[in-house]
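note to self: dont lose this again. the chain is below, predicted strucutre after it. 557 aa total, dont forget to put it in the shared folder this time
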Amino acid sequence: MKMRTFFGVLSMFLLQTVNMLFAQFIEITRQTGVDFQHSSGATGHYHLPETLGSGGAFFDYNNDGNLDLYLVNGGNLTQTSSGKNTSALYHNNGNGTFTEVTQKANITNSNAYGQGATTGDYDNDGDIDIYLTNFGTNYFYRNDGDGTFTEVGGQVGVAGTSWSTSATFLDYDRDGYLDLYVVNYVSYKITEDYPLCYDDSVRTYCHPKFFSGQPDRLYKNNGDGTFTDTTKIAGIDDVGGLYQGKGLGVVAADLNNDRYPDIYVANDDTPNYLFLNNGDGTFMEIATFTGAAYSGDGIAEAGMGVDAGDYNEDGLLDLFVTNFSYETNTLYQNNGDGTFSDVSYRSNLGEDSYLRLGFGTNFLDYNNDSHLDLFVANGHLSPSIEQSTDTVTYAQPDQLFQNNGNGTFTQIVSASNLCLQKPFVSRSSILGDYDNDGDLDLVITTLNGYTRFLENIQERVRKTSSNWLGIKTIGNTSNRDGIGARIIFKIGGKQLIREVSTGGSYLSSHDPRVFIGTSTHKFIDRIEIHWPSGIKQALNHVSTNRHIKIVEKETFP
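---
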């Protein structure tokens, strides 16, 4: 019996070791032709917007079946109309390379200090549109369907004038049209004189505690090409009169399984927000009461990025938030009774993040074994941090955590992942299958550096029997993208859930397709789609290792 136990433990150890040795991402930036360089426009005045970096979006803007890439840039804060350091759109050529088509597509964002992006088909015309958040007026580019875009932010009512960071599309009232949630940070004006801030006599950027927070914005899609600001009506503005969030990350997800999307906001050094959708066009902020506002120690952490996913496969979406160094990132486990528990240390995610400062983050099944793994992009805010401490660095390695399938994660630290060992000042992480091979790739933006393109070559290198399926949802009664649809997979006696979303992470938007790894199973027993409209649809005995489209219709055999 003891010998059997020994070999069981040894087998588990060897399996984890093999997985660690063969976890494969390689940097292919130069080969792709994506030569994007971010600029914060720093001039030595230590303006706070210079620290946040920028994001981007994977989306198929011309409907050719290949993910294109939009990357947001900063620029000179005092001369944003110079036209320099413009954002860029890269067309996917379908052969592993990209061509820059920014001017041709009329989507430069050149007169703004860019922050992030989110994508969605707001007018249900079959073409994906893109919303850009800025330090100042936001831009909304309507896809004209001919390879070009028209900026309509002011015209449709979503321009805004605050310092916006992340944003996400969602259909919060389930009327078939995508609404828009925009996260705002702090009140900050370049022209004002702010106190100089120091860390051990070294000049640095001021802490956000010196600035007042700004309320987020919720825009309802009227269905006629315009939006109405419903922030106050919906109960989003100035939550409880107690806090004004300093938001950086947002994800929309159905956290209580009532088929309505809820909204979770990662706030910087103030309690996070969880807006529970009441199903009547209003929300109730419940983060403190549910245990999702603070860490398990009762601390309001410096939330940066966020994502939602069912990491422990219990049919409930959990939340993961990246935070400041000396805080750890936080995994909030959904208990299914309206509460969340901080399981960061129990899941082995706490200690490995303690000295890191996380920004972008993604739940992803990088090796198609059916379990959701985690990626975190790291990098500090202060260039002078190493002058005041010998434990935290400015540039930091990114991190990949493999889900062990038992409620815990293991950080992948093998020599074969050199692209994840080198330190960078990373910010956003953008997730998508750019080459349509069934494994998820990553684009990582860098503050004042070049954007990195990481290709997942897991299956090519390991030649394992792991299988996968990619699903593009097309709504009819629901919104065209199917955003908010809940998909249930029944595979070999177990059940997995995924939701259609393009939001999450930090300042970024992602592949709208749903991916499921099926491990050794070549067929999925049953797929059930619960559309936002209420329509239910099912497919039986579905073969894997391909991309499919599912068009909304009432079929539930």
